[in-house]
Target: Methyltransferase domain containing protein
Amino acid sequence: MKIHSTFILALASLPCALAFVSPFKNVQNSATTSTQHFVATDPVKPALFVDETRASVSKYYGQELTKSDDLKTNACCTAGAPPDYIQKAINNIHPEVVARYYGCGLCLPQYPLEGANILDLGSGSGRDVYIASQLVGKTGKVIGVDMTDEQVEVARKYLDYHAEKFGFANVEFKKGYLENLADLNLEKESFDVIISNCVINLCADKEAVLKECLDLLKPGGELYFSDVYANRRVPKSLQEDEVLWGECLSGALYWNDFENMARKVGFPDPRLVEDAPITIKNDAVERLISESGNGALEFYSATYRLWKMDLEPHCEDYGQAVIYKGTIDRYPSGWLLDKHHYMETGKVFPVCGNTFKMLHDSRLKEHFDFIGTWDHHYGIFEGCGSSIPFSDPNSEASGKGAATGGCC
Model:
């Protein structure tokens, strides 16, 4: 399965990941066992629909799931082994918090975060919050938001445990809805990074979530998140399936809808960091999808980064380039901005104007040398297009940094 852009204002009401429809081939999808159907067919009552969806997702994640092994598919658990420094941070977290983790990717940008303010959307039992807590240190702060009572209770239960373990207290958990973050009295433009791990796809109004994020980010900050996406729009019949919602499939956005939605809200240049097909591996779920006539529907777990800065809608060429200094911890040989921008240490790397700004107008500036000005425009950056960004899992070129010759 793949993840990409356009936003489908459909049926997601809990924090789960944004879904991208993938261009991958020959990926089999699965369907679920005893599925209960909850449908909001009356367009005049959207509030009721949202309430029912929230209640369903909250019950699924708060009562029916007690650990990640209870999930029927791997849609929310596709991440590979974490880097050593992240694994060390996880080892410091209470086992109950780790056991109730349902994420689909590593949702922490890979650059120094000391002193940063981070917001985690759909924080669940708090695993990613407690990882980030260790990375930002005592001068930073991490806030987690989740709508599920049982998950927030687990997260708060171990606040003192982790404060003692880390040697400082810099964490807070709030109960609330991602579409209504303004209700939580969070300071606007106060966060360096907003993260989310397989949660936005559970929200009924994904556009509202993105708008809230834009308001809360500092200029030069980013929304860095993993979610589930589809290679085409998920049909209404599958959107109305309760279990498929809980498993982060029915709420997946068509990748192009997501990217268009992000641009509309104010994130002009969404960047795909990495993606992986989702293999459902559940006979009942696979049968449900296939027998509904949607056997070609594919899903992907994908990580995107959306920057809050003045960017152009397309990659424009100003004759600019950057040189990575090799100074980011744990990345002395090179650093990956996104799937098409792996910058080797010391090598001149041609970039479009947007990539230039992402590196220059953010926390990354000190790690790069910048070449060029804005005096001359040379047109669209060569090779930039609008085709699906995900890799064919059968292609030899798939994987991180597959295209490393220049921008896009």
The chain has twelve helices and 14 strands. The longest strand covers residues 217-230.
